């Protein structure tokens, strides 16, 4: 079990080593959850040794005050595990995106995500930090280098951040001259505020748009899927341990009542 938790930490370290400064800031929660999972796994394993005799059968060591204390620790660790599972569920249980006619990529809408997640992204301090590092990344500037013509750009499979932060939403109806420039002389076909916020300037783009926040949210969802998988596996294993502990405590109580 501890190996699974260490795997989460390892994944967070890998993300930090292979991503830019902006994305590194999004790996800290992964490392934090990995640390919590290590503690929970260690605590649950310690309690397991009190209820399972590795050479034989269940050993009823939950009797008396010591047993009650150990059992309360087991419950506490299990509760923490449920909480961490809930956090990863909130982050990963989000929108899968909206298809765009004639395009290979999808676009994302902020309102599709959980209220807890929206609160974090709409926090002025949080987004100011994320926005400043997004401007410094090469996500948007590299588009014109990868796609030389408007035709190539139209066939591009953009990442969530590229689709949300580097271009205006498709609903605005601005024609794309190339991968980094849109004809803003056209009247937008949507009343979305993102249509007014977008500028062709490399330092502006759509970094203040809700579509950009949604792109970041989708990026985090994708990266956190690995954490969610680890958490589900750990939850199943720890649930089995919790069940063994409950059964052992109940049997111990019955034995004491017969004495």
From TrEMBL:
InterPro entries: TET_plant (IPR044991), Tetraspanin/Peripherin (IPR018499). It holds the Pfam family Tetraspanin. It is a multi-pass membrane protein. Keywords: Membrane, Transmembrane, Transmembrane helix. The chain crosses the membrane at residues 226-248. It is found in: Membrane. Belongs to the tetraspanin (TM4SF) family. This is Tetraspanin-10. It comes from Solanum tuberosum (Potato).
């Amino acid at each position: 079990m501890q190996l699974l938790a260490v795997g989460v930490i390892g994944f967070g370290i890998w993300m930090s080593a292979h991503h830019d400064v902006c994305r590194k800031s999004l790996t800290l929660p992964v490392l934090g959850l990995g640390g919590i999972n290590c503690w929970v796994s260690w605590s649950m394993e310690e309690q397991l040794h009190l209820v399972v005799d590795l050479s034989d059968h269940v050993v009823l060591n939950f009797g008396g005050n010591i047993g009650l204390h150990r059992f309360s620790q087991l419950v506490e660790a299990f509760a923490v595990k449920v909480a961490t599972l809930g956090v990863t569920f909130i982050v990963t249980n989000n929108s899968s995106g909206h298809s765009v006619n004639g395009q290979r990529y999808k676009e994302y809408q902020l309102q599709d995500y959980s209220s807890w997640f929206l609160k974090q992204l709409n926090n002025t301090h949080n987004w100011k930090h994320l926005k400043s590092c997004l401007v410094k990344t090469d996500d948007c500037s590299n588009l014109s280098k990868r796609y030389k013509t408007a035709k190539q750009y139209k066939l591009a499979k953009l990442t969530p951040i590229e689709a949300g932060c580097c271009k205006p939403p498709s609903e605005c109806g601005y024609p794309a001259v190339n991968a980094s420039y849109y004809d803003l002389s056209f009247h937008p076909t949507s009343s979305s505020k993102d249509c007014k916020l977008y500028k062709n300037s490399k330092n502006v783009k759509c970094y203040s748009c809700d579509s950009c926040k949604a792109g970041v949210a989708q990026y985090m969802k994708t990266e956190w899927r690995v954490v969610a998988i680890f958490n589900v596996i750990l939850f199943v294993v720890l649930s089995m341990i919790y069940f063994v502990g409950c059964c052992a405590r109940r049997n111990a109580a019955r034995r004491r009542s017969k004495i």
